[in-house]
Amino acid sequence: MRSLQVKNLSKVYPNGNQALNNINFTVNPGEAVILLGHNGSGKSTLFRSMINFETPTTGEVLIGGQSTTSLSRRQLRPIRQKVGMVFQNFNLVHNLSVFQNVLFGALGTSKTIQTFNWIAPKELRFKAMEALDRVGLSEFAKRRADELSGGQQQRVAIARMLMQDPELVLADEPIASLDPKAGREVMDLLWDIVHERGLTVVSILHQMDIAKEYGERILALKDGELVIDQDIHTLNERALNDLYHQPTTKQRAGA
């Protein structure tokens, strides 16, 4: 299982905007962490930095004890293979089948995979169908991805992630595009899989009630600073409410 460590992470953009200010935290193997914060708090910048889509100004990110901040794309590949990502907008190829979309999850581990037809290696086809069965969508394998509901598409994205055999899962607002019922179903599924496999997970959410229900630990950003890092059982409710109900510096300045 993979740990995630963020050390002294700061990000200042060329226009002078400081998106992150000296962020420090460690997510231990098997831990389920929810990241909260108002719009503009720095959540997205932090998320992109964790997967090296964003280069920090200072500090570093370590996955499984390996610093990813200064690595080349080639050097990052074996680390990213074990990091499963779930996005708000699903990131599916809409005109391809559900089955083909799931097979894309194996691209990082197989050089011979052919995802545009049914002649991928037998073991990968079997694994893709197993993943679809796990998310309850095996009967939709031949359907186009854009024919499915939003909740079903997110399930396909989770099945695609399972093809990686991930050890760390990073989920960026995985239920933001879904209605409440579908959102809870997706969270139940994702958290069941995380617990089944003993995975480490960090998920960005907006909904405090969902965060408190699913997270073992809450991290929260405000104005680019880490203002809450607490176990769910010792969580300061007042601090959590202030996170959303008190205006941020940017809001007070009219940003």
TrEMBL record:
Picking any one GO molecular function of the record gives: ATP hydrolysis activity
- CDD domains in alphabetical order: ABC_PhnC_transporter (cd03256)
Recorded hits in Pfam families, A to Z, give: ABC_tran
Entry's Gene3D superfamilies?
Answer: P-loop containing nucleotide triphosphate hydrolases
Q: Which InterPro entries match?
A: AAA+_ATPase (IPR003593), ABC_transporter-like_ATP-bd (IPR003439), ABC_transporter-like_CS (IPR017871), ABC_transpr_PhnC (IPR012693), MetN_ABC_transporter-like (IPR050086), P-loop_NTPase (IPR027417)
One GO cellular component term noted in the UniProt record for this chain: membrane
May I ask which residue range the UniProt record assigns to the signal sequence? none
Its transmembrane ranges are none
Tree of life domain: Bacteria
Q: What is this protein called?
A: Phosphonate transport system ATP-binding protein
Q: Which organism is it from?
A: Salsuginibacillus halophilus
